[in-house]
Structures
1.
Amino acid sequence: MTDHPPARETVDVSILREIARNSLVHALNSVNGAKTLVLDPSLAGPLSLVTEVSLLQQHGVDKMFWLEDGALSAPTTNIVYLCRPRITWVKIIADQIKRHSAESQKHTYTLLLVPRTSTLITRVLEEEGVLGDVTISSYNLQFIPIADDVVSLENSEAFKEIWVDGDETSIYDSSQAIHTLQKLFGLFPRIVGKGDHAGRLAELLTRQTTLHAGVDRESLLDVSDTFDSLIIIDRRIDMITPLLTQLTYEGLIDEVLHIRNSHIEVPVSLLNVPSNPNQSASGSGSTSVAPAAPALAQEKKRKYHLSASRDPVFAELRDLNFASVGKRLNKAARRLDDDYRDYKARNQASVSQLRDFVGKLGGLQAEHRALQLHTGLSEMIVPVTRSDIFNKSLEIQQNLLASYDVPGQITAVEDLIAQGAEMQIVIRLLCLASIIAGGIKSKTLENIKKEVLQAYGYNYLPLLLSLAAPPLAILLPNPLPSSASSAVSSAKYPYTALRKSLRLLIDGNESLDEMENDISYVYSGYAPISIRLVQCVAQKGGVLSNPANNKEGAPEEDGKKGKSTFLGLPQAHPIVGFKGFEDVVESIAGRTVNITQKGAGVTNGASTTLRQWSNRSRSFLSPNASFSVAASGKRTTITVVFFLGGCTFTEIAALRWAGFQTQGRKFLVATTGMVNGGSMIESIAGIGRAAASSNEANL
Amino acid sequence: MAEHPTTSWQAMQDGNVFYRQQRLYTLDGKLPSLGDSIVAGCRNGGPLALMRDTRKIISISPAVPMLAKSQIQVFSPSGEGLLLLSWEQAKVICFGWTGDERLVILNEEGVYRLYDLQGDYVQFSLGTDAGEVGITDARIHDDGLVALTGSLQLLEVKGWEGRKPLILANPSLSEPPTVWTLIPPDLTISRHVEVLLSVGASVLSVDNLEAVDQRLSRGPFTHMAPSPNGKSLALLTMSGMLWVVLTDFQRSLADFDSTSVGAVGPVRQVEWCGNDAILITWDALVLLVGPRGDTLKYLYVGPTFAVTEVDGVRVIAADACDFIQKVPASSLSVFRPGSTSPSAILFDAWENFNNRSPKADENIRSIKPDLAAAVDEVIDAAGQEWEPAWQRRLLNAANFGKSFLDLYNSNDFVNMGKTLKVLNAVRQLEVGIPITHFQYNYLSPSHLISRLTSRNLHLLALHISSFLSLSPDDVLKHWASAKIMKSRPVVSGSGKDADMIGDEEVSRAIVEKFEKLGGSSVSYAEIAKKAWEVGRTRLATMLLDHESRASDQVPLLLVMKEDRLALQKAVDSGDTDLVYHVLLQLYNRLPLGSFFRLIEDGGSSLASASRLLQVYAREQNPEMLRDFYYSDDRRVESAVLSLEEARRMKASLEPLMCISVNRRPLQDPAAKMMDEYSRLLAFQQTLEKETTDKIEFFGLSVDETIKKCLLNWHRFWYLKLHALTASRDFEGLEAFSKSKRSPIGYEAFVRHLVEKGHPREAVNYVSRCDAPKRIDLYIECGEWVMAGKECKDRGDRARLDTLRSTCPNTLIARELDQIASTMK
């Protein structure tokens, strides 16, 4: 594993957080005086990423409650509801308002809808007869930065809404959010994408650009010199990747502990570390774990914000394959130990040296705490990875990916049902089998469906039907019944062909360290199709062979890569769409998008505020940027990869890895939300993962 | 040659400060008597609205124009009549002007109308409650109004979109305030409107949170006026004392005894002149009170009316319209008698130059270091002058000075020239907008243009906007709607044909003009809407075809009952909210059957609308959804819908019925599953009955049911294993494992026990597992020694070595060594 340069040359996405904060403050200030904030629990997570309770309090929020069934006793006259425009929420709100008026309590109600107001809501309020009492306004929460190279709309339901309900609201919202990005940094010179809904999004985006340009001339956008392209990946194009078990550190945390809006719930004891550094530092060095996890699991939980910028250890670990996490933890522990020892050795040092060290001490302690936490987290994950069910499902996944003995794998899935494996694991494996093999034999499928229903309850029947129905259609019988629409039958996924043409499977026989020379390390041997498609656009060499290997070989041979610089990294090639892979891309059902955008051309002196922001942000580019400009005569450009319907942590890890293989191009991941197979299946089944326990809300 | 600017100047404060009285227009009796009317003036050189004061007796004389009883007339500051309204509704309580020059008229029933200068109005109401108690008084500011109800409550309306009025904090008054005023929200610290009521000797300040008594003792007050910047307040007491305080009543700024002037009669008005002087008017006298109590008297014939402006005050009398302001610093510097400032010298130099006097050169030389600043000042002074002749002279002087500078950015010079052209154009008598340079900058050019269009002065507006290189869109839009209104089709012609020709002509004219001047960016929808409103559907459709923005297009299409097209456009736009908007409207308006047919007939192009309808209906209107599925013959979906309903209903027979009724439509396998489901539910019900409802079975999955019943052989082993482990009944587990050969093997035992944290118990089962796996299993249990022994038994030396190297501590290592030594 090569050590990555620590500084990343990417745009400063924290502007987006600033914008979100400011507009929240603005929305709150529109209501005068002390107010009670009633919060949609699904917004608490996203909000906590842009603001903190103290900021809300500064702007008059007296008390906060979750938006939930039942009466609301607010101490203030002003009540502010902050929620997404969902009918369930509005019904609760209407109910609370009616209760208040029945008890003749006087309140003024403001409803802030995220991200925009909705006729639907007005209508429901009207039907409930409370429209006159409520002032409706909006809080436009768009992309939230969840890492310095990831922005997300944090809408976990997007996948279900688009592909199960057919509700395209999130596509529209995405286009709005992407347009905001364009307003900040300029037009994407090129939009590339794959998939029907990706096509729709691109269409909306270009239409919006021309419309906005029509409204007033000053908002005409220039072609960005920060971005080189936008790549839209429709989640439906690659269903295989999220169905697999993620094997990076962050991915596994997500699978096991469920990362929600960058937060996980961890036992309190992991966060409060005994302060004696030496003892525990040496203690945490060993990662051989006794099965102490059950004891930990019963403890009280507390939310922890997983953030690479605040937690250096996490930054180092998050994208590693879990197999190498232990080693890395060990290394970090040893380094920390050395640092402390340094300190001891300096006991006799001069006062000034001592002062230097004491200055560093805070950092060391923070690192120590982080180390302790991640050791604890690993301890929690290891037993899971050692469990029988986990390993069996991994084995089934690997066999399916190799198309090895599919009927046998289905039998193995049946065994898992018998062993009482989680519903989502079973369904994920079944869907995987169906996609890869182009359907499961009708008889077997009926049987296994029956077993699923018996084992987990008949209330999952709608789930099974949704999975089989177009446009999702990821759990199909083979051959298809004659009644099925032609759309379903023609959309068969060409997995076997892709496996070869996109080099999806890498032999995993070598030790892990060597495997990390291709993005496939994130799934221990399988390269995510989505990222391969991105590589088809932005790193064509990486699809054909391992870029890391090429580096050691003779880069001069490969004319396309350009000259090798003194850094040893090849220069990124310009974006020309899917050129060279048209056949492969066409073989996947769904529209292919390739649009070139032309900007205003003329720049008038008047610049919008947003523009000024972006100018400021450009100067935030890390000094490395200018460095590489000097080296290659070309500035580093950003390729934005937008996952419509959500992306997984492994895909981000793979993209980061790919980004380090060339110079002159970095990736910025944008997504509707973070998903994994489990959360996707569960949202289709209608099981909410959000669990707000206390009545009084906090972030 | 216009007279020298200083002739209109008057000195105050020992000659340090000058105020000037600029004659804007001479009116010569164009207005009705101000003394007999109620007047409302619009700021920034806006028009005046007059209504006859019915409390006064008036003498009828033919010389003066007169207003009939219930009429409101609007005059431009130059005395041109702009509009004559007759008011048929209940008694007018108050009228005033919005920021964009619309006249607000509020009546005692709480109904208010907003008239534009063409006489078109929109009407809103303050609500039925307000109507019942009645409105007794109101104050109108640029962006809203506050009304005092008959029950002495304050109602606030924000903006002019007809929003619901908010009730401000209750001032708990027992009688109406003697006088009251408000500070507009953009001038207060809280950014919410603040109302000041003079009650008894004190003043109450009220906003939407609280009413605070300021605990004053000088009241009651007869007049109250906040300064244009909202920072200070002028109060006039019963005894005629003028008192100026900060609006938070923390500091008193000035006191002045207005009776000392010896004016006759009651005070008519107290108004601010800019932010630092106050104008008090009586019937025969206008008095300007400076910040230090110095005064200036102005004499007018008859009563006057004063309008506060941001930079001065406009005084309208029967014969003239004047503007009184403090002389701006730049003018003062150039023209003040005896001024030796560089700008004055520059102006002097230019005059000398024109007189061919050599002094010009001398002058310029003497101010060379300050020349740039002097030029700037002279340019600014040009902006302050009303007379074009003087503007020109000053600009020429600036131009002259400029030529002595090597480096000078002439932008200001050019801009000032342009601006003055615009200002002079709108100040003409016919237009009558006496806007000052300061006000123009304060309001923005586009505001001025919208004021021109609202007077139907489209050509002037268009010229100005192209002169200032602004977008002509707004002007064009206004022009087009005016055109449509004016060109009402002549129905008298040969019926429909004549109509159509008219439509086409207008449409062509509008489109041509738009394309020539505005590019593609003008919104046709608004104009189409206007056409629709006046009943010209065909014209509206023609214009709407040119609209590219769906969000503008769709609502109008809906209104025009082009349902299909509206829905199609909404779906194409991708804006789901717009789709909902159309769907819900149509659902309300159309009979259910044709509503469904509309969606179904749309086929794949309207598919997303159909799905959105389902999303909405599932939550809010399941009945409608069932009808929809029924009408579309979607049996599977309707079965699923029933199933979902069944899931919601608990422990009753209804779900059973739902399921059995609905299983038929499902396709074969699914129907079978539904069948099974209903059988299961029935079985669970019997189970519950058998256990006399002590155990809940209903709605459980089969597995869970079995777990409770302890049935089924193969799963039973797993279930029992898990159950016994969870209850830590290890003896029971032992007995159970021996009761029969395990169908699931014993490895499962070991693994499950280890997983649950019972390695010690797990060890017992290792020996019963398959031999090759035992070593690993022992290790998993943490029994290194046993693992070692196993190695020995199997004679696996290599494995033993690896064990030794990986074992956790030295104690075990030693034991392993021992085992190793006994090997061979």
Note: The domain at 395-478 of chain A is CATH 1.25.40.850 (Serine Threonine Protein Phosphatase 5, Tetratricopeptide repeat).
2.
Amino acid sequence: MNDQTPPTREMREAKLEGMGCKRKRVEDVRFTQGKGNYVDDMKLPGMLFGDLVRSPYGHARVKSIDTSKAMKVPGVLAVLTAKELAGVNLAWMPTLAGDVQMVLADGKVLFQGQEVAFVVATDRYAAADGVEAVEVEYEELPVCVDPFKSMLPNAPELREDLKGKMTGAHGPRKHHNHIFEWTVGDKTATDTAFNTAEVSIKELISYQRVHPSPLETCQCLASFDKVRGELTVYGTFQAPHVIRTVASLISTIPEHKIHVIAPDIGGGFGNKVGAYPGYICAIVASIVTGKPVKWVEDRMENLSSTSFARDYHMTCEIAATKAGKITGLRVHVLADHGAFDACADPSKWPAGFFNIVTGSYDIPTAHISVDGVYTNKAPGGVAYRCSFRVTEAAYCIERGMDILAQKLGMDPAELRLKNFIKREQFPYHSALGWEYDSGDYHTAMNKAMDAIGYKQLRAEQLAKREAFKRGETRDLMGIGVCFFTEIVGAGPSKNCDILGLAMFDSCEIRIHPTGSGIVRVGSKSQGQGHETTWAQIVATEIGIPADNLTVEEGNTDTAPYGLGTYGSRSTPVAGAAIAMAARKIKAKAQMIAAHMLEVHEGDLEWDIDGFRVKGLPEKSKSMKELVWAAYNKPPPGMEPGMEAVSYYDPPNMTYPFGAYFCVMDIDVDTGEYKVRKFYALDDCGTRINPMIIEGQVHGGLTEAFAIAMGQELKYDDRGNLHGGSFMDFFLPTAVETPHWTTDHTVTPSPHHPIGAKGVGESPNVGGVPAFSNAVNDAFNFMGGTHIQMPHDHWRNWEAAHSRGMHG
Amino acid sequence: MIPASFDYHRPKSTPEALAILGQYGDDARVVAGGHSLIPMMKLRMAQPSHLVDLRSIPELKGIRIDGTTIVIGAMTTQAELLGSAQLTAAVPILHEAALQIADPQVRYMGTLGGNVANGDPGNDMPAVMQCLDASYRVTGKTGSRSIKARAFYKSAYVTALNSGEIVTAIEIPVPPGKHGYSYDKLKRKIGDYATAAAAVMMTVSGGKVQTCAIALTNLGPTPIYCAQASAAIVGSGLDTAAITAAAGAAGALMAPSPDGRGTVQFRTSVGGVMIGRALQRAYQRATA
Amino acid sequence: MAKSAIKLKINGAEVEALVEPRTLLVHFLREQQMLTGTHIGCETSHCGVCTVDLNGMSVKSCTIFAIQADGADVITIEGMANADGTLHALQEGFRQMHGLQCGFCTPGMILRAHRLLKENPNPTEAEIRMGIAGNLCRCTGYQNIVKAIQHAAAKLGGREYLEAAE
């Protein structure tokens, strides 16, 4: 608080609840009273319900589908199969990654849980009865679930539809189960760096198949109006406009006759970016029956069919000097995409932004290659609370750094400090082609190390290890270090599009005559609190209290076209569009103020909630007065009204970063672990609402904890998914979840209008390596270089066992 | 996940329930708390035509101490067990074990009878009952009989219960006032079944173990009562050699199935660790 | 399928309805009574988003049939606000302490916390964490949910809660 500031200014400022304010959330008023409006809460007159018959097999030919018994089930009105869908050219659908995917099994099934038939009935109970009554005859085929075996010469051919097509959406295919090879970097220079390296490491680092699992599953309600020829689809869509455009492109319905509406969404985390067969089936069923059709996935369907994440198998090599200066990085990735390439990446990026794998380090040369392969597993590969494949990249480099430190006999924090990109090197051009906008890594790392008491912890660890060796304890202590750099805010149209749709975002602001207004945005909140924070940006920019601004998203008829919310892109892209639209409002207000105050625009200065004449603070006009004038007394020649639209094509990505430390104790006899402390320092640039940022960090860290310590979608050799319910799939409760300590530095983005970078996914990106490094750090003094995730009791016990710790 | 159709019955007395069961035979299933059966019905892995809900039968409720025996009505919920100060004072292991079952909501609905009767090897109370040498009061159309918990479990989901019989009460011999106990359960998270769990009851005199009972959860198709392991402890001062001998004897009986919780080797090994922990805690409590 | 008549009290009001025996309580509440604040998340009784209060117990309404609730007294999130329309201390606590994000788990979480505080008006952090262990949240990491419940406990107990949301 500044004593020289007159209290009236403070009160004016406080009234805005603008940027930097821990504003309480607008959304909570309805959510805490059970008045949210999620898809399954909706009911339309005459609504029917659809349910899916799914494959029990991982790979099988569909010999026949008999729907006659199902049609006799009371309440069942229709059963769709690939045959019916083929009639409307929708047996297959395009994926976001340039592949095609069966909507309903066309001749064969390629993964357990694949959609085979869609039963439409008067209610969900009858639909479930109908599903049970559909008789499908299968002939089992050889199964391939292991990506390392998918390109063997004798591997079963999974995608018969691609037979003979040796060029895919991303170039040549090497094998019938190969999807693409993607390379970036200077191979010759990188090979030379390794050939001349004093020290190098090479490790296979796998990131297991996991799932975003929002508590609300994927669902939609499609309603086709035959009279008007118009389709309305309510759905759990993180990117409603993309869904509208795709729906128009694959149907014969013009885009203006499709209304896509995403109401409240119960968490997304990447699960709700893609288009799924259930959506297509509901739409077709509504067209066929002329009635609204609702489709709601159950939890097992969610875990087994819509959008896994990761399944990346990364061979990481780092070359360095004996003194610990990195001279080269080489990574090969075997990417398991499942039965169809349905990754939700910007189209030109088959492995997303995996080339951020140089991380926070000044690495002179690097080369990466990624091979995508098909297996008999569910399709997906979504960005689960991360920008596209950034989580995998961060895990790869941050494990690699620890492995290198171990080999060099150097402290892992010290190795990082030695190789960080320095503050004065920004904007920094990485060896794999990115321009990092801003950063101050040393400051962040040193602040974090001081806060956690890093040196003392290492001393304690040393003593504990000695005690362990003497047999005085059965606990190991691990200190996990992670310093990550994210790349978010996809993205500039020069390199980011989805099926040709440039990845800009948008905002439309309409201020009403009395000084309140509506802000419509192309993003779509799934819990991030956009209704709260977007208003804060506008409040600060134009001086209208956030409480007087309604934020609206998700209705494609009213929201300006936007690419939606995922990959931490909302603040970097939509947030920028909001500020730019607000500045257009402000510019018009300034012209009006100049006219009213009879001065030149240049003689005015902005003052919290209005303009005043420089040097004559008593001569001023509040925004409220200016808006009224904009409608009713505009300057001669000026159009009335107070509206602005901005479509923002970002000049660059943003690069949030952070320093995370995890202190963990592990019982070698049971594998039980206790997270003693977790400290997360995030730098997401300008902070719009610190309360919401901290909440995002808590949530992301909890997801990271779940992934690192227990999550795994595991298939057996026959293609059966194990762990496809919440009994087995590890979602921690309040009891398992550690306590989080958060901290921050602020390094604004130089190219973003308000300097913000995005934060929602940082804790997942940085959290996973911090946990995994802690576990590895606990064990590595007894040998070994890398323990694969998940680090559950069993694997921790195995790690101890293989190191001879059980006598 | 929608169950198939069924007819619902809510009898007011045990004879009425038995009559319904007699009438419909294997087409009928009894439901207690429902947290095992209803999910199975929603998955359509169970499709009874008749569901017989025991919740309105007064005589299946309640906890009473009857001289040397504690009688707990089969429909007594885990939450009611936890809420009974008298029971907790007399048999504290029940409180300790009940708290480790599922989560608060499930404990409000889940019953002791359901937990012991359905034969799920993941359920916690069967091993505790074997450890306590409890008996199950079982009633059928031909009358009532008592079956020892130690003789009740045949294989996974297969018990000594005959078709048409229901468990009406659990009878537990009142343990000595001064005793040690422990239920140690390793699990992945709240709501999970045990990776391995051990129940121990013990009396100690002059530093030497006088009586000891050990039983295990989810380390085989049935709960495992470890007579030999228990015998290995009796007479000892619970030294390392005795614990090792007990864990070894118990280990020979373990036959867990490999699953997401771990391999047979891991689960067997931590089964031994749970035994060790439970023995030591029970000993401390017995000697405190 | 033949339907049976049930009579129960929901949020203080007597309700009579016809249900199929297999109708789950959660579907009855959401689809027949239009009380859509109670959600469905996992369907195997692990996530707790369907939690309602039934005869003074927190119950997962996806794992009980409506017909089993015949004669019961049910409270859902729609019945939590105070009689004068102001928010219940828990509803207020969740907002003040940023105890929710997507809002999907919130009704179940609040109903569970309601029963917890009835049974233990002044719980420790560990007791709260154990007490809400049947309710999953994917957004918040629980830290602010714990504070929200502490905030409500303080308010209900006539005390002031001084900690801020993190």
Note: Chain A has three domains: 7-36+505-648, 39-141+217-265+272-305, 308-490+653-802.
